[in-house]
Write a structure and sequence with these properties.
Layout lengths: L29 E2 L11 E2 L4 E5 H5 L6 H6 L36 E5 L2 E2 L21 E7 L4 H4 L6 E7 L5 E11 L6 E12 L2 E11 L13 E4 L2 E4 L5 E2 L2 E4 L4 E4 L10 E3 L2 H4 L13 E15 L2 E17 L8 E3 L12 E7 L7 E18 L5 E21 L1 H7 L26 H7 E26 L2 E19 L2 H5 L6 E22 L2 E15 L5 E11 L4 E12 L3 H5 L3 E6 L9 H9 L12 E6 L8 E13 L3 E13 L2 E2 L3 H10 L5 H4 L2 E3 L6 E6 L2 E2 L2 E17 L2 E18 L6 E3 L3 E2 L9 E11 L2 E10 L2 E3 L9 E2 L2 E11 L4 E8 L28 E9 L1
Parallel strand pairs: 4-7, 13-20, 30-35, 40-43
Antiparallel strand pairs: 1-2, 3-6, 4-5, 6-7, 8-9, 8-47, 9-10, 10-17, 11-12, 14-15, 14-20, 15-16, 17-18, 18-21, 19-20, 21-22, 22-23, 23-24, 24-25, 25-26, 26-27, 27-28, 28-31, 29-30, 31-32, 32-37, 33-36, 34-35, 37-38, 38-39, 38-41, 41-42, 42-45, 43-44, 45-46, 46-47
């Protein structure tokens, strides 16, 4: 449980408001600010925007924004991993959003129109959405368009602008409790919001607590699976209980695994007999406790001067069970006291179950505060000066990690001793249960690293009306900003000494200026009620890359009261993150497919030419991979175009939008599986990839692989978004149906000039998620007097596995999830709700290139059916 005495503070804060509040009116897509800095006019948005209200969020059974945002049809691929246990790219248990499947770094996340500090356990790339409780959210605007000219770098795929209940009045208590049908994954959430007006202002306070419980992967997946002969068979890790070795005569042997038999026994290694079922030591998702506190205060200093302040604090504690730790390969002499083979050997992989079960843990603290002054000039122009500060710090580590250097010492007969009080005891790693407590105490340690992120920004904005033109009001917004960010990561000293992780330290700053115009072109014509142009330009001078100017031109053509046509042409760019540019090497065991295993065709031919035997079989499914930064990586640029049609009537609204995003010099890290596949498909063209890994000269297993970000040649994403919203009422019965669908038309990338173009359309991958052609969400809500019911359907289309495979795993079928919720208003103050998510307990499909749980955990639900009860009380 938490001990939070250190944060028993009074929080003062604000609604940073004029810059980011975007209220929808009874017209189609009328917004004040999201997607624009121009205030005090109605903007019929040229850019497609999806809005989720607090009521929409309340209809879900989840307690984190990541799950809601990633279920949108416009989202795809890996985002955060609050919903899966072992994705490490941006810090364990973090939560992000990934629009268009283009990566979390290309989706800009704002809070009330302001940037958020990155979150995680050090030198991270994106805000951790765990810092924003769902109960604090008033509305989320998802701008599905490049917006660098409005918001600066990173808004390549779009912008998620989270609007908080900073103007709440009254008191509201919400309590939710739930669990899965397997009687685990217990979820508890408590949320209270208080708000009140005083003589010259308003204050809102929110407190939120979440405990999302735990679910073991072994209760859902008895073992990791592989397909052979049209059947699914268990496979096991080659890091085994008791240990295995390669003898000097070339034999691969397994040491005793039965604690009741001869401790010196060993035999030829057979994965089917000796392998380790690592699913027994995995969570199905990240168990987490979270406390969030937020306060917003606005205060009128005078009739023309407004002060706004905000402060948010989030403490997240998460932990996972992990497999018993291993250590690097060690050469052992034939005459070593505990060596039972009488041969020199290399002790390769050992699962050290003699040590207590390790626990992997993380704790982060995040503060986000802002202070702004705003006012109105005599000519009615509005100005705002703001200071924004965010700081995130984190600690992570695990217990009973093995020190590679000390393990090697305990296997070196020249320096270790078998005496009882030896300074360096000799270790018997040859068979299960042979390790003494003395050796365990000498070689294990509590591994712990720290890190953080910091953001500071100053900005000044000015907006207003310039002149009245024949077609309407010419309006503008302009401003300047200075932003400074830094990130750092201080690994455990022993981990650094053993070459497992390097420190990270980097910073960047940017100076920016922008101008935006809203230009009325035509009004009250026979062919148009109104035509308007939205023009924006932003100049950005970054510390580590050349200055860049981005542009936006948007046209809205309101044909009549029912029809609106719109289009946007814009440029965007993204600078390398601190980890991409300054990150050192971090070694991780990543799931990677070796293409020489069961190779055919040209890949088989090239594997044979490299000396790899035709019957080669990959040992396990993970490869020790070094990931890190690249000081030579530069910025990427993007061109975005959208076309849209909007229809509005009394009961029906509909939007259809085409989008096309093309990124040049794209910053990408090619997956290990793809690097290997490309290498053996054409070793000459992909020589750089062939140089990125090493193989054991005897077993031909890949012993190390390295991947780093680089500026690739091109990446393109295109598709269609459709949204239909129908609402009406018959007497006391009200109903609403909302349907959103995305049809992906193109998703491809080219690793570098001259390389093959990788087609991802309709493909599911090992580490980048699914690029299914169709993704859709349908929800229907009925309200009758005190009752309300909602039925929701999420559709994920079929896809082909990027690595092929057998008839079972080479493709995944379409999947449909059903959620239901019913609520009853006991009184005006009290409402009770009951819901079931994944009503029919739909199980995730098996695919060849699974990344965990025998499936794609970025795309499919791994927990199963779960129910919840919720109480809402207003007082």
């Amino acid at each position: 449980m938490f001990s939070y005495s250190k944060i028993s503070l009074v929080f003062f804060a604000l609604g940073i408001s004029q810059v980011a509040v975007a209220e929808q009116t009874n017209q189609i897509e009328h917004f004040e600010v999201t997607g624009s800095k121009i205030k005090n006019i109605d903007l019929e948005s040229a850019s497609p925007i999806t809005t989720l209200t607090a009521d929409d969020l309340a209809l879900t059974g989840v307690s984190n924004l990541e799950e809601v945002l990633q279920s949108l049809s416009a989202s795809a691929g890996p985002a955060g991993n609050a919903t899966n246990a072992y994705w490490t790219s941006n810090g364990y248990a973090t939560a992000q959003v990934n629009l268009r499947g283009m990566g979390i770094k290309r989706t800009l996340v704002l809070l009330n129109g302001k940037r958020l500090v990155a979150g995680g356990t050090g030198a991270n790339d994106s805000p951790d959405l765990n810092m924003i409780p769902m109960g604090l959210v008033k509305r989320i605007d998802i701008l599905k368009d490049g917006a660098s000219a409005i918001y600066g770098a990173d808004a390549v795929a779009g912008v998620v602008n989270i609007i908080t209940k900073s103007d709440f009045s009254g008191a509201h208590l919400s309590a939710k409790f739930g669990q899965s049908s397997k009687k685990d994954a217990e979820n508890t959430e408590l949320n209270i919001t208080l708000g009140s007006e005083f003589e010259r202002g308003h204050v809102t306070v929110n407190v939120n607590y979440v405990d999302n419980g735990n679910a073991l992967q072994s209760t859902r997946n008895p073992c990791p699976l592989s397909e052979s002969g049209g059947k699914l068979n268990c496979i096991y890790s080659g890091t085994t209980i008791g240990g295995r070795a390669r003898l000097s005569d070339g034999r691969e042997v397994q040491f005793n695994q039965n604690p009741d038999s001869d401790g010196n026994q060993f035999e030829d290694y057979n994965n089917a007999l000796h392998g380790y079922n690592w699913f027994e030591s995995l969570n199905s998702y990240n168990p987490m406790e979270r406390l969030n506190l937020a306060t917003f205060i606005d205060y009128a200093l005078s009739d023309s001067l407004q002060l706004n302040t905000s402060l948010l604090y989030a403490n997240r504690r998460s932990d996972q069970i992990v497999t018993p730790r291993g250590f690097k390969s060690v050469d052992v002499a034939s005459d070593f006291v505990y060596n039972p083979t009488a041969q020199d050997l290399t002790l390769k992989r050992r699962r050290n179950i003699e040590a207590p079960n390790p626990e992997f843990y993380q704790e982060t603290d995040t503060f986000q505060g802002a202070l702004s002054l705003s006012g109105e000039l005599n000519n009615n122009w509005i100005w705002q000066a703001s200071y924004n500060y965010g700081r995130n710090t984190g600690t992570d580590g695990w217990s009973y990690d093995f020190d590679d250097e000390r393990v090697a010492q305990t296997l070196n007969g020249d320096i270790c001793s078998t005496s009882k009080d030896a300074a360096i005891p000799c270790g018997d790693y040859f068979g299960v249960g042979e390790l003494s407590e003395q050796v365990i105490n000498y070689v294990t340690y509590q591994r712990e690293g720290t890190g953080g992120n910091q953001l500071q920004s100053l900005s000044f904005d000015l907006s207003g009306d310039i002149a009245e033109l024949p077609a309407g009001t010419l309006a503008f917004a302009t401003g300047a900003a200075y932003r400074k960010e830094k990130g750092w990561r201080n690994p455990d000293a022993i981990a650094m000494r053993n070459g497992e992780e390097d420190p990270i330290s980097g910073h960047s700053n940017v100076k920016e200026a922008f101008l935006e115009l809203s230009v009325p072109l035509i009004s009250n014509a026979a062919y148009a009620d109104a035509i308007k142009a939205d023009i924006a330009a932003r100049y950005s001078d970054h510390e580590h890359v050349d200055a860049k100017t981005t542009y936006k031109l948007g046209i809205t053509w309101r044909v009549n009261e029912q029809f609106l046509l719109r289009t946007v042409r814009s440029t965007a760019f993204r600078t390398p993150t601190i980890t991409e540019q300054f990150g050192g090497t971090n070694v991780e065991n990543l799931i990677t497919m070796d293409p020489c295993d069961s190779a055919t065709g040209e890949i088989l031919r090239n594997c044979l030419l490299a000396g790899i035997p035709e019957d080669f079989t990959q040992d396990g499914s993970t490869i020790r991979t070094g990931v890190g930064g690249n000081p030579e990586v530069g910025p990427e640029t993007a061109d975005t175009i959208t076309f849209g049609l909007v229809y509005q009537s009394a009961h029906l609204s509909a939007t259809l939008d085409y989008f096309n995003i093309e990124v040049d010099n794209a910053i990408n890290t090619v997956s290990g599986s793809n690097m290997l596949r490309l290498c053996y498909s054409d070793p000459v063209a992909y020589q750089a990839y062939c140089n990125s890994f090493t193989r054991d000269p005897i077993t031909f297993q890949i012993t190390a692989l390295e991947k780093r970000p680089m500026n690739t040649s091109n990446e393109q994403v295109a598709g269609l978004d459709l949204n239909l919203n129908f609402s009406s009422a018959v007497n006391s019965l009200e109903y609403r149906v909302n349907w959103e669908t995305t049809r992906l038309l193109e998703h491809k990338n080219t690793a570098f000039a001259g390389a093959e173009t990788e087609q991802l359309l309709g493909v599911i991958t090992s580490d980048r998620g699914s690029y299914t052609k169709w993704k859709s969400n349908l929800s229907a809500t009925l309200s009758y007097t005190q009752w309300q019911g909602t039925y929701s359907i999420q559709y994920i289309g079929k896809a082909q596995d990027e690595n092929g495979g057998g008839p079972i795993g080479s493709s995944v079928p379409s999947i449909i999830y059903h959620d239901v919720q019913a609520s009853y208003s006991v009184s005006q103050a009290l409402k009770l709700s009951f819901g079931i998510d994944n009503l029919f307990d739909k199980q995730p499909p098996f695919l060849t290139s699974w990344n965990d749980a025998n499936t794609d955990v970025f795309t499919y639900d791994t927990v199963g059916r779960r129910g919840y009860l919720k109480l809402d009380y207003t007082f």
